[in-house]
Structures are given as structure tokens and as C-alpha cells.
Amino acid sequence: MIHKKYENEEHAVADIPNDSTVLVGGFGGSGLPSRLITALKENGATGLTIVSNNIGAVSEGVATLISNQQVKKIICSFPVGPHANELIEYLETGRVELELVPQGTLAERIRAGGAGISAFYTPTAAHTELGEGKESRVFNNREHLLEYAITGDYALIKAHRADRWGNLVYRKAQRNFNPVMATAAQTTIAEVDEIVEVGDMSAEEIISPSVYVHRLVEIASQEERGKVQNG
Questions:
Q1: Residues 6 or more apart from 28 whose CB is under 8 A from it?
Q2: SMART domains this protein is in (predicted)?
């Protein structure tokens, strides 16, 4: 088993090319891999398709990539927040394409991608504008829409702790979109507060096995780790 470690976030995202599909974890600011997002902005890759729950409830969110004109398409549930007006302008001028997906459907499309399930039916959004033009079938006298799985070239995720093999433990609300996104990308890059030795974490607390994690970036100083553990 190869130990996985990158010295900094810039190195970890340096090879993300133009026109990549990037899954970005987090729910608002909870579990947001903000350092990796900033590094991707500095990387300068353009034509990105970003899959995320929202575009950025905090300044370090996906909205910074949109403002930097790196995004051609955003697939999300909540295109709202401080940068909503800017996104609307980009949509109206055709600079960014938006695919709006109900939150549960978004999570399931990503989970399906990680599980190798190509598509599935769901009643969510049937008989609404979001369901227009989609294939549908009736199950148990209820209309269901066909939804396709989502996978990514890269996933940028946030976890609390990793061992050097890449097994991940999440802290509280970090366990939102991050675990499913870890399974659905060809290359998963995890921003973590702390990297520990193999065996220092209990097998029962590991949520994302190392087989899904390809790169690790440790971001917290010793003082910051104490704040995380005590706060």
C-alpha cells in the first residue's frame, strides 16, 4: 500500500487540466475544501464543470472559480448566496451553464456514479419545470423521472483526519457530500486537518476507505488541530 501525501494544496491540484469535471464537497461552509478551491483558482484551469451542493455561502466557495471565469457549467442544488447576482449575469450572457438538481437527487446521482449505476428513476421533480423533457415512467401509479449518474475527473473533498494510506474520518457536518464524492471521481484529493500513522484510527470510525482517496493535503497546524478537537 502506497502512503499518500502532498506537501501543499498547489501541488495536489497542479495537474487538473482545462475542461475537467470537478466534484466539490461541502454544504455551505461545512466540509468545504476551501484551501483546495483556492489552489484550483491559482491553477487557472478553465472550462470546468463543477458539481457542488451550492455555489458558495462563504467567500472561499465555488463562486470564486466562477468569478475567475474558470467555470463553463455548474451542477448544483442552491445557486444562491452573495454571488448569486454575478451568476445570473453570467447565465444571461451565456458564459456559464446551470443545471439545477434537487438536493436529494444530486446526492443520489453522485452515489450512483460511485456505485457503477448508470441511471435510476425517482419521483422527485416530476410534474415540475425541472422534470420537463426528461424520460419518465409510472411506478405504483406515480410518475418517476429518469436521472443519470454523475462522475468526475477529480473530487475535492474535506475530512477531519486521514492516515497515511488515505483512510478518512469526518467530523460532524463534514460528512455531507464528501463521502459520496470520494467514490465518484477518477482522482480524489482530500484536504484534512491531520494525517496520522496507519493504525492510529479505529476501523469502525473510517468512513471513506483509502481505495477511494488518491492524494492528501494536511492543512492544520498543531495549534489549529487543538482548536478543531476542542471546538
A1: 53, 54, 57, 58
A2: CoA_trans
Q: Which three cell numbers stand for residue 124?
A: 422527485
User: What is the reported pTM?
Assistant: 0.91
Q: Residue written as cell 462563504? A: 58
pLDDT confidence tier of residue 109, bands split at 50, 70 and 90: very high
d(CA 21, CA 54): 16
Name which of 182, 163, 135, 165 is nearest 31 in CA terms.
182
- Which CATH architecture group holds 18-100+151-230? 3-Layer(aba) Sandwich (3.40)
Q: Label residue 53 left, alpha or beta by phi (over 0 means left) and psi (-120 to 50 means alpha).
A: alpha
Domain edges within the chain: 18-100+151-230
Backbone angles phi, psi at 120, to 5 degrees: -155, 165
Q: Count the neighbouring beta carbons within 10 Å of the beta carbon of residue 1.
A: 9
Backbone angles phi, psi at 125, to 5 degrees: 80, 0
**Residues sharing a CB contact under 8 Å with residue 60, sequence separation 6 or more, in sequence order:** 32, 34, 37, 38
Give residue 231's pLDDT band: very low, low, confident or very high (50, 70, 90).
very low
